[in-house]
Structure formats: C-alpha cells, structure tokens
Amino acid sequence: MLLDRLLEHIDVHVDYFSLCLLTVGWRLRLPGPPDVMLHFVLRGRGTLRGPSGRAWPLAQGSLAIVPKGTVHVLESGSNAKRERRVNALPAGAKAPARLVAGSPDQANLVVACGLIRVRYGRSLRVFDQLRDVLAVDMSDCLQVQAAVEGIVAEQTKPDSGGEALMSALMTECLVHPFRHMARAEDPQLPWLAALGDARLACAVKSALDAPATRHTVGSLAKIASMSRSAFARRFSEAFGQPPMNLVRLVRLQLAAELLTRNGTLSIDAVAGRIGYSSRSHFSRAFKEHFNSSPSAFRAASVGHGL
Fold this sequence. Notes:
By secondary structure, the chain is of the alpha+beta class. The chain is built from eleven helices and twelve strands.
C-alpha cells in the first residue's frame, strides 16, 4: 500500500514526556508547545479544549495531537472550576515531569504528554499542515498504550539505547492511528487525505516507484491527469511543499540506502541510479540533506554496522 511506502522512511524523535494528573473539577492549562505535542490518556475521562473553545472528549485510549504553538486545556469532570496554569513546559527532564492539577493521590485523569518531531526522509514534517487538534480513539488498540507506557518507563529508568528505543516505540504508536485515519471518511491530515485522491496518489506512487525517472512538475501532473497548475497547487496544499521536493527526498533516501547496503557501488553509480547525471550535483544535494558527503556517510554507516 502507498501509506506503507511513505511510512518506511518516517523519522520520529521524542523530546520528553510528562504525566498530567488531574482531580475531578480541575483543569490544567498548558502553553503552546514548541513542537507538536502528543497526549495519550492512560486512565480516566475528561476533555481537551483548544484556543477556540472547541472540546474533544477524552477517555482511556484517546490519542490527541496538538499543533505547535497551540495553547490548550485538559479538564477532568464535566464542570471543571479550579485551574492550574502551566506557564512553561519542562525541558530536558531526565524523568517524566508530573504536572498536577488538584491532588496527585486523587487523580481521576492521567495523561501522558510528550513533544515529538515526525518527518519523512528527515525533511517533510508530517504534522506541519495540521491546523487544529487531531483526536483519535485508539482504545481498541492495546499496542498504542503499551508503546506509550514503554516510553514513560524508559524515561523513568534510562539506559543505553534509550533514545533509539523511544523513537521505535513512538513510531509504532503513530503507525496505528495513521492506519485508523487512512480508513476514515475524513483523514484529518491533508497528506493522508491526498492519498485517497487517486490522481495525486498515482503521481506520488510514480515518484516512489521510479525515483531515477526525470520527473518534472509537468510529467507528474500528466500522470495525475491534472493541469500543471492545479496539480502543483493541490500537491502543495496536501504536503506543504512543491512536488519536486518530494521527488528529491525520495531520491536522497534511496541513495542513503544504496550507500549503506551496497558497498560495491561507486558514488557515480549511486548518483545514476537515483536520477542524477552529475556526481557533483548529487554530492551537493546529499551533503545539504544529510550534512555529510556520500563517501563519509557510507564510511560512518559501515563503522556503526548499519
């Protein structure tokens, strides 16, 4: 499936997690996060409110994604009148911080909250086009709760390899709601909705399947059976950047795989396989994207046993 192809190269980073504990009748007002924030309800029921006042009901297994910079409120109970205001999110904590509204011993709503960065091919930020809170009921997917609990446990007692483990667990945590949303009538994320558009999906599939082809906006528009301007506009609305940016990402991601897995291919051969006629042009593009020359990237990959 096309979604599987896109998720093959998803890059997930977890900054830190906090535990929000709320007693019935309390609300916890949180500042706009510096990056996308994920909330997962570990226990209890409540409500999440965005800056417009719109309410999203929460229950155990609810997962909510809050866009960067969005001030929001967690509430426990149907008539929260007491409030704790958090002016700044904890940063660099070695263990999950506890943000308490009310009494921690009487917490009726427990929510794991973490800052995350999710990108495709290290550049295409998956949630950049998100303009409002995204809420998904994942109560029927026990793997998501297990993944979140695993991240919290790893941060509570950090060990070697912890960052890689947390990234892997968060990737698992996100794949399930992506699947869920892809099946929904309104996928909520523009790029997921775009995959449901057969015309755009054909163009994206062509870029993924044949990265060495000399794609242009015009050729991709033809595959999508759309005018060049309509295709470019629709693609940018969905993915937040021009079509050729995705083509470039796909090519460079494939180049990284070839350099890592095939030590016999020359740099010129790798460049040719992904559609670059000039080694120097390829090397500049690769270094700009990975902050490393192709040869240095290959050496480092071999040195780390990748």
